[in-house]
């Protein structure tokens, strides 16, 4: 009565004395799995995602409204427009907070995704190294620009 | 399922007194002594749709192919040994009726995911029980042993009533996408069993268990996917229990 709908059996001589390797999932827990590290890093990371998310909703929607919708929309954006806004410490702070929160929020999210999906330890290491480098670079560069912006540059 | 009922009515009209239907079971087989790869195999059965998937597996094993391997013990949803992936969802074979599965189409049965596949529907449960042991699933107290039971009010008992129902079948843990990719995550079942003691007024190691679950493989890896709540054959609100542990951790800190 049984019908094979998909015969994938290879001709390798497997037998009771010579079984094939069992099908293992990545990264199983064993009694040697690292024990607790006693830090609150993940707790703070989790909280940070929730809190920064709420703040970012306000900052980003406000930003998009100002840049793209109100007052002529995209067409008004130019060097002079940006220079005008950054003359005020209020918009400087707004953009600075948005930069830091956005970058850290995104980086932590990607860190989580790497933890979830990268199977081998070396893949994890390299992806995270790349992620942290890119994050630090972008944050530093952005901060530098906001603070040292010179409207009279030619 | 209405179509199943209709089919049954039709079938009865054709051959009176027959309550049996023909159902196809598509089972993912793996036998390392024959091949290194798993493959799907179809079995056609004449079976009463009011029977359970476990009965179909028995019928296959006893009448068609004795090499079919699966775990079961109580056959009544108590022991938790026959969790498997039926039509893509984790369930207990002994609690799943065939008529609830749309038997017009092949019913797929495969082992639960995220644990080492040993043979056919049997997986290595060791990592699952390792996570269970790691949360200290036993009563911890200090001081002298009382001469009578440790009493508890009905409200205190109610606090963790839901999580006492766990039968450790691994349906929740092996339905969790985080666990599929990283078996180092404690998984819902271990957290449920930690919850059972963390919120028990008689227990004194709640703090220690919270500390264990505060780690990088602990509750913070939960993405509230709700697969575990959906999979639980005992109807435990698993995701809610995990969230309660998270809340306990946060309120403890602030
Ligand atoms: S056989 Fe015991 S739970 Fe299904």
Automatic annotation (TrEMBL), chain A:
The chain crosses the membrane at residues 47-70, 90-108, 129-149. Residues 1-34 are annotated as: Disordered. The keyword Nucleotide-binding does not apply. It is found in: Membrane. Gene3D superfamilies: Fumarate reductase/succinate dehydrogenase, transmembrane subunit. GO terms for molecular function: metal ion binding. The keyword rRNA-binding does not apply. Residues 1-11 have a biased composition (Polar residues). Keywords: Heme, Iron, Membrane, Metal-binding, Transmembrane, Transmembrane helix. Pfam families: Sdh_cyt (PF01127). GO terms for cellular component: membrane. InterPro entries: SQR/QFR_C/D, SuccDH_FuR_B_TM-su. It comes from the Bacteria. This is Succinate dehydrogenase.
TrEMBL record, chain B:
Binds 1 [4Fe-4S] cluster. Binds 1 [2Fe-2S] cluster. It catalyses: a quinone + succinate = fumarate + a quinol. It comes from the Bacteria. Gene3D superfamilies: 3.10.20.30, Alpha-helical ferredoxin (1.10.1060.10). Residues 156-178 form the 4Fe-4S ferredoxin-type domain. Residues 32-115 form the 2Fe-2S ferredoxin-type domain. GO terms for biological process: respiratory electron transport chain; tricarboxylic acid cycle. Its EC number is 1.3.5.1. Pathway: Carbohydrate metabolism; tricarboxylic acid cycle. It is an enzyme of class 1 (oxidoreductase). It holds the Pfam family Fer2_3. The keyword Acyltransferase does not apply. Its cofactor is [4Fe-4S] cluster; [2Fe-2S] cluster; [3Fe-4S] cluster. InterPro entries: 2Fe-2S_ferredoxin-like_sf, 2Fe-2S_ferredoxin-type, 4Fe4S_Fe-S-bd, 4Fe4S_Fe_S_CS, Beta-grasp_dom_sf, Helical_ferredxn, SDH/FRD_Iron-Sulfur, Succ_DH/fum_Rdtase_Fe-S. One of its GO terms (molecular function) is succinate dehydrogenase (quinone) activity. Keywords: 2Fe-2S, 3Fe-4S, 4Fe-4S, Iron, Iron-sulfur, Metal-binding, Oxidoreductase, Tricarboxylic acid cycle. Belongs to the succinate dehydrogenase/fumarate reductase iron-sulfur protein family. This is Succinate dehydrogenase iron-sulfur subunit.
């Amino acid at each position: 009565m049984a019908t094979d709908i998909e015969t994938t059996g290879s001709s390798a001589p497997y037998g009771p004395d010579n079984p094939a390797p069992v099908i293992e999932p990545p990264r199983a827990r064993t009694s040697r799995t690292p024990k607790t590290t006693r830090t609150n890093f993940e707790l703070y990371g989790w909280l940070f995602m929730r809190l920064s998310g709420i703040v970012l909703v306000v900052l980003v929607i406000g930003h998009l409204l100002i840049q793209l919708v109100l007052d002529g929309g995209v067409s008004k954006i130019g060097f002079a427009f940006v220079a005008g806004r950054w003359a005020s410490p209020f918009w400087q702070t707004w953009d600075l907070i948005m930069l830091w929160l956005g970058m850290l929020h995104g980086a932590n999210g990607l860190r989580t995704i790497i933890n979830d999906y990268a199977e081998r330890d070396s893949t994890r290491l390299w992806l995270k190294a790349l992620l942290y480098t890119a994050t630090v670079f972008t944050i530093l560069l952005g901060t530098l620009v906001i603070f040292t912006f010179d409207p009279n540059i030619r | 399922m209405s179509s199943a009922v209709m089919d049954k009515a039709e079938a009865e009209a054709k051959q009176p007194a027959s309550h049996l239907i023909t159902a196809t079971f598509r089972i993912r087989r793996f036998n390392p002594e024959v091949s290194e790869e798993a493959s799907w195999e179809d079995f056609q059965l004449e079976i009463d749709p009011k029977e359970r998937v476990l009965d179909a597996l028995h019928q296959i094993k006893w009448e068609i192919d004795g090499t079919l391997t699966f775990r079961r013990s109580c056959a009544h949803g108590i022991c938790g040994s026959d969790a498997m992936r039926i039509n893509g969802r984790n369930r207990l074979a002994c609690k799943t009726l065939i008529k609830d599965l749309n038997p017009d189409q092949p019913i797929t049965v495969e082992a639960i995911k995220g644990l080492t596949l040993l043979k056919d529907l049997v997986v290595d449960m060791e990592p699952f029980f390792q996570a269970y042991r790691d949360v200290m699933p036993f009563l911890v107290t200090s001081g002298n042993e009382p001469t009578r039971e440790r009493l508890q009010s009905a409200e205190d008992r109610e606090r963790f009533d839901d999580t006492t129902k766990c039968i450790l079948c691994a349906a929740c843990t092996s339905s969790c996408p985080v666990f599929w990719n990283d078996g180092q995550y404690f998984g819902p079942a271990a957290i449920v069993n930690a919850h059972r003691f963390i919120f028990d007024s008689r227990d004194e190691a709640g703090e220690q268990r919270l500390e264990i679950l505060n780690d990088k493989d602990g509750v913070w890896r939960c993405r509230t996917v709700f697969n575990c709540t959906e999979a639980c054959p005992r109807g435990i609100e698993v995701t809610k229990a995990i969230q309660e542990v998270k809340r306990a951790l946060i309120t403890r800190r602030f």
